[in-house]
Amino acid sequence: MSTVADLTVPEELRAVATNLRCEHSFPVQPPHGSLLAPGPCSRCGVAWAVCARDVPDRLREPLAALLEVVSSVAEYAAERGYSTNAQTDATLSVARAVNGGAADV
């Protein structure tokens, strides 16, 4: 599993978008997890601790779409040697808040 430090800005934004779109399934049977400590999602691999559970269902797809668009813009800018702008930085902050501010994605 990657950490945020290992990911570029576009990769981090796409990872959170994937997290938002996944219909998570966390195993609670040993050896993969327990009721008190569910294992990582069997579909996308995100850890229970960083799953975006607090985002309302009606906001998941629009927020994921926004993160995808901004990740494309950030990737385009990086390919051309431009620095990130305030919108990208603000969107990255939102993505990290959705991810619980955790280091694992």
Describe this structure in words.
By secondary structure, the protein is mostly helical. It has a domain at 4-22 and 53-98. It has helices spanning 9-21, 57-79, 86-98. Helix 1 (9-21) packs antiparallel against helix 2, helix 1 (9-21) crosses helix 3 and helix 2 (57-79) packs across helix 3. The protein is elongated, with a radius of gyration of 15 Å. The N and C termini lie close together (7 Å). The mean pLDDT is 84.
Provide the low-confidence segments as ranges: none
Q: Count the helices. How many?
A: 3
**Biggest sheet: strands, sense, closure?**
none
| Mean pLDDT over the full residue set | 84
Order of helices and strands: HHH
Class from helix and strand fractions? mainly alpha
Name the shape in a single word: elongated
Number of E-state strands: 0
What proportion of the residues is helical, as a percent range? Answer: 40-55%
Write the layout of secondary structure elements.
Elements: H1 9-21, H2 57-79, H3 86-98
Helix pairs in contact: 1-2, 1-3, 2-3
Features:
105 residues, elongated, mainly alpha
In short:
With 105 residues, this protein is mainly alpha-helical. 47% of the residues lie in helices and 0% in strands.
